[in-house]
Design brief:
heterodimer; A: 409 residues; mainly beta; Sulfite Oxidase, Chain A, domain 2; Immunoglobulin-like; 3 domains; 5-stranded mixed sheet; 5-stranded antiparallel sheet; 11% helix; 31% strand; disordered N terminus; B: 91 residues; mainly alpha; Cytochrome Bc1 Complex, Chain D, domain 2; 5 helices
């Protein structure tokens, strides 16, 4: 890996100073590093540190870099670029020079393969902006019971952003994509250390590739994509988990046959019929399992921390976010007595069906005691969060309702 | 300014390079684990995935690295790797 001076300067003094001022070992019990249900070793080995261009995030692994966003950032409607989570499978991550970047577009189900420069991508297609939540399939894996191997994410392997780019379908149309196309494959510039390690390559169904909302994005929240989030161009697949949102995009191929590769046929798969999802990826299904597709409905309390204390007889504001795979959030119900009684939260501005929805709830003035806050989201097609973990061996789709215990008095 | 910038750069570099601060537990097989596992990833993957895997679980992880990820780990080294991982990071 190489880092240029500009990227370092972007990191800003605050991030570096923060990392430097908090020596290792002093953070072991810091709740910002994740909920207590994470594996003990995951909590002990996590710390806050800043990648170049980023504020201090929760370091899960150095190489490849996997960094989680602290929950407090989710009080904002859009997650700042410099606080957006970082997730890689492979450790060779090139610093892509914009003038050298080329996107090859082709595949056996396209008549006219061609290449695009960054300037062409930006100027020769209609720009589109979509607000969408990007969430790692394995977000909350660390809360799986029993624990399962992998990056032990807490709540923060996600972020909401405004993604600007061009429609994948427009780029494919210029290549003369044919009706026989069943999948569209995306590859990125990041690569493995060893030749024998399967390169990270992903496909999506042709119908999803041709969806108006599926973009080749070059901007995030009004700025160029951060290096660690896929500069200069990444795939944005609203409603679907981030495994398909290929970073540092280098090629797009329309295929007449299902793509065979480790990251499709063996990884990112869920037991068939286990989750209430609508979108199917039929060309990749087997009798037993299927690729993960859309996000399941979920929510998160963003402004309270476990064990937080409040003065008695004052109302307490609870804030959070709720999301699903793109049907839209219909309601968030909140309980402050551990789930015995529920009242609807106030839903804030609708930022689009692929964005998360902020919500707000006020716990009435209460006497001293312990209170357990629980939030449960329901979407517009009637799907809701689970109370018991829907266990699966890779720890995907964890949407168990979150419980936060607070202390009044 | 220049001095401050230089210090800042050193800190940033140190922070990044700082997978070297991951110290695995002392014990027989530690160097074998460090040499084999750090070819492809930082060693914090090991404590992060603890403590919940039993010996069979760690054996599965090592074999996945060989068979799926193509790690050039010698067959005769596998028991030593699994012993260390199970003893120090196993349940």
């Amino acid at each position: 890996m190489t880092f240029d001076r500009r990227r370092f300067l972007l990191a800003g003094a605050s991030g570096v100073a923060y990392a430097a001022a908090r020596p290792l070992g002093s953070l072991a019990a810091d709740p910002v590093l994740g909920p207590a249900q994470l594996p003990s070793g995951a909590l002990e080995s996590a710390l806050l540190d800043a990648l170049p261009g980023k504020v201090p995030l929760i370091k899960k692994s150095w190489r490849p870099p996997n960094f989680e966003t602290p929950v407090s950032y989710f009080n904002e409607a859009f997650t700042p670029n410099n606080a957006f989570f970082v997730r890689y499978h492979l450790a060779n991550i090139p610093d892509v020079a914009p003038q050298d970047w080329r996107l090859s577009v082709g595949g056996d189900a396209a008549d006219k393969p061609y290449e695009l420069t960054l300037g062409q991508l930006r100027s020769e297609f209609t720009p589109v902006e979509v607000s969408a939540l990007c969430i790692c399939s394995g977000n909350r894996r660390g809360l799986s019971d029993p624990h399962v191997p992998g990056v032990q994410w807490g709540y923060g392997a996600m972020g909401n952003a405004r993604w600007k780019g061009v429609r994948l379908k427009d780029v494919l149309a210029r290549a003369g994509i044919r009706k026989e196309a069943v999948e569209v494959v995306a590859n990125g510039a990041d690569a493995a250390v060893l030749d024998k390690t399967p390169d990270f390559v992903k496909s999506i169904p042709a119908w999803k590739a041709m969806d108006d909302n599926t973009l080749l994005a070059y901007e995030m929240n009004g700025e160029a994509l951060p290096h660690w989030n896929g500069y200069p161009v990444r795939l944005v697949v609203p409603g679907w988990t981030a495994t398909y949102w290929m970073k540092h995009l280098t090629s797009i191929a329309a295929l007449s046959q299902p793509f065979k590769g480790f990251w499709m046929s063996a990884a990112y798969r869920i037991p068939k019929g286990k989750f209430p999802v609508v979108d199917r990826f039929t060309t990749q299904e087997t009798d037993a399992n299927t690729p993960i597709t859309e996000m399941v409905v979920s929510s998160l309390i963003t402004n309270l921390t476990e064990g937080q204390r409040f003065a008695p007889y004052q109302s307490i504001e609870v804030r959070g976010v709720a999301w699903d795979g793109g049907y839209g959030i219909a309601a968030v119900d909140v309980s402050h007595d551990g789930g015995h009684s529920w009242r609807p939260a106030e839903l804030l501005a609708d930022l689009g069906r692929f964005s998360w929805r902020q919500w707000r709830y006020v716990v009435p003035a209460a006497r001293a005691g312990g209170y357990t806050i629980v939030a449960k989201a329901t979407n517009r097609i009637g799907a809701s969060q689970t109370f018991e973990l829907n266990f699966n061996p890779a720890g995907y789709h964890n949407n168990v309702v979150q419980r936060v215990n607070i202390q009044v008095g | 300014m220049r001095g401050a910038l230089l210090i800042g750069m050193l800190l940033a570099t140190a922070a990044l390079a700082d997978e070297s601060q991951v110290k695995l537990k002392e014990g027989e097989g530690r160097q074998l684990v460090e040499a084999n596992c750090s070819m492809c990833h930082s060693l914090d993957y090991i404590p992060m995935n603890s403590v919940f895997l039993d010996r069979k679980g760690w054996e599965g992880s090592v074999n996945k690295m060989i068979k799926v990820m193509g790690a050039p780990i010698r067959t005769e080294d596998v028991p030593g790797l699994v012993d260390y991982l199970a003893q120090h990071y196993g349940k």
